[in-house]
Specification:
It contains 15 helices and 23 strands. By secondary structure, it is of the alpha/beta class. The protein has two domains: about 50-265 and about 470-490, Aldehyde Dehydrogenase, Chain A, domain 1 (3-Layer(aba) Sandwich); about 265-450, Aldehyde Dehydrogenase, Chain A, domain 2. It binds nicotinamide-adenine-dinucleotide (NAD).
């Protein structure tokens, strides 16, 4: 097996700083590299390692662009519409390249990276359509005075993104922020800087005014932290680990900075005795092993009713064993490598924990070796049965291809188990009894519950978490509201110089 063949892009990729429309090196020329996770002998990307000074310049550029209303950005919704639609078009025109960049940096099979790019284009198009529809509200009081509620952009926004779906994660923040009239500083994840840069580079082929979109690659603790701490930034839109999110929320609170957080998950997938086994099993596989399970909404806990347990598990295991693990470039590959050595270790530690605890390993469990696997972070798709939901395997986010299976007796126990975690991002329910499926969907405390499907994320819908999975919502109209303030403009309609209320202070 070869892992670097099959990409037509020239390596290494790059990611400079982009400040006020200009690309540049970091202070002192510092750089960092990103390896190819499928073949670590190869450098995928060389990126500028932004310093404190660099990120401050990016923030300043964004602040100046907003405060000067550059190009009438805040009010000219037609310009914003045009920029967003054009970006969608450019993404589609460059889809093959973008898919390869994502596939390379993440280790995502090209079959998954390609639709991932298409979704990013859809997101820009959707918010392009909303940019000119930011209607406010108006209300007339009995005395003729008028309340106007107008929507305004929040201002300068820091977009701090993770590596697992780099293009759509960025698009889900960037497109609505721009539709609202904000200016931004993007801090991409250090495993995937080129994916973010490729997008910014395309945007600079549109009519976007300079300084509206700035890109600051570099370490989270330097670049990300400054974006969070800076008084010049009005809002943080963060996607990443729950621990990082808690820290960001605490620091942002010092300035009463607006924060939206898309954090971790531990998605339950509830299968009742009367479920369509074939459909549920296929949907489970998709949720469990898409992007090697490195997804916040990954199906991580299969909660299966006792009567169907063995039949369902047999089918899931059968499908799992057929998955082709291999080079992301190969069109037939179903699952690629993990993103990094540290992620591989985390996954292996969870597998060891499952074995040591005595859970029943029904398939997988090994790091793949030989046959070209040695230079990449390949781990088998792994399923443990008989898992205690209260154990580490049932509670903690693994972010890898390791799934816990647990039995339940009845509806109440299913809901109890589904909710017995700190997270509440997504869940799935399978039952042929629709009223029951709906009842359970209502009782599960999660931002999205799928009935008869898995991992459907239409841009028209929403994405976001209950409990420790986050604050705020992305996608849809809610995703736009997260980047807007609402202002009341009150206009007197009485024409009176001495209004009745003034009598509380003025006698005549
Ligand atoms: P991470 O928290 O390690 O990093 C996310 C981003 O934050 C990166 O750009 C990183 O450089 C930056 N960062 C790190 N420390 C920082 C700090 N102190 N201040 C400011 N920024 C900092 O997460 P990750 O490993 O990149 O992503 C995986 C995590 O993301 C998983 O937990 C996953 O569940 C979560 N995730 C959630 C969603 C969602 O929509 N809820 C989507 C995708 C991923």
């Amino acid at each position: 097996m070869t892992t670097s063949e099959g990409y037509s892009i020239k390596l290494p990729l790059s990611c400079p700083l982009v400040i006020n429309g200009e690309e540049g090196a970091a202070t002192g020329g510092k750089q960092f590299t990103r390896e190819n996770p499928a073949d670590t002998r190869q450098v995928a990307t060389v990126a500028a390692q932004g310093s404190l000074e660099d990120v401050q310049s990016a923030i300043d550029a964004s602040r100046t662009a907003f405060d000067s209303n550059t190009g009438n950005w805040i009010y000219n919704y037609k310009l914003r519409e045009q920029v967003l639609f054009r970006t969608a078009q450019l993404i589609r025109e460059n889809a093959q390249r973008l898919a390869q960049v994502v596939s390379l940096e993440v280790g995502m099979p090209i079959r998954q990276a390609t639709p991932h790019v298409a979704v990013a284009a859809d997101i820009f198009e959707f918010y392009g359509g909303l940019a000119g529809k930011l209607y406010g509200e108006s209300f007339t009081l009995p005395n003729g005075s008028m309340i106007n509620l107008v929507k305004e952009p929040i201002g300068v926004v820091g977009l701090i993104t993770p590596w697992n779906f780099p293009l759509t994660q960025t698009a889900r923040k960037l497109a609505p922020a721009l539709a609202a009239g904000c200016t931004v500083v993007i801090k991409p994840a250090s495993y995937t800087p080129a994916a973010a840069y490729e997008l910014v580079k395309l945007m600079h082929q549109t009519a976007i005014p300079k300084g509206v979109v700035n890109l600051a690659p570099g370490p989270g603790v330097v670049v990300g932290a400054e974006i969070v701490n800076s008084k010049k930034v009005d809002k943080i839109s963060f996607t990443g680990e729950t621990g990082t999110g808690k820290d960001i929320a605490a620091r942002a609170a010092r300035e009463v900075k607006r924060v939206s957080l898309e954090l971790g998950g531990k998605a339950p997938y509830v299968i009742f005795d009367d479920a369509d086994v074939e459909a549920a099993a296929r949907a489970a596989i998709f949720g469990m092993f898409r992007n090697a399970g490195q997804a916040c909404g990954a199906t991580t806990r299969l909660l299966v009713q006792e009567g169907i347990h063995q039949r369902f598990l047999n089918r899931v295991v059968e499908l799992t064993r057929k998955l082709e693990v291999g080079a992301p470039t190969r069109p037939s590959t179903d699952m690629g490598p993990l993103v990094s050595r540290s992620q591989e270790r985390v996954v292996q530690d969870f597998i060891k924990y499952g074995l040591d605890t005595g859970f029943d390993l029904v398939t997988g469990g090994h790091k793949l070796r030989g046959n070209g696997f040695d230079n990449g972070y390949y781990v088998e798709p792994t399923i443990f049965d008989g898992v205690d939901n209260a154990s580490k395997l049932g509670q903690e986010e693994i972010f890898g291809p390791v799934v816990a299976v647990t039995s339940f007796k009845d509806e109440n126990e299913a809901v109890e188990l589904a909710n017995a975690v700190d997270f509440g991002l997504v869940a799935g329910v399978w039952s042929s009894n629709y009223p029951r499926a709906m009842r359970v969907a209502r009782r599960i405390r999660a931002g999205t519950v799928w009935i008869w499907d898995n991992y459907a994320q239409p841009v028209e819908g929403i994405w976001g978490g209950y409990k420790q999975s986050g604050i705020g919502r992305e996608l849809g109209y809610y995703g736009l509201e997260d980047f807007m303030e609402v202002k009341q403009i009150f206009t007197d309609g009485t024409g009176l110089a001495m209004k009745p209320s003034y009598g509380q202070v003025i006698k005549e």
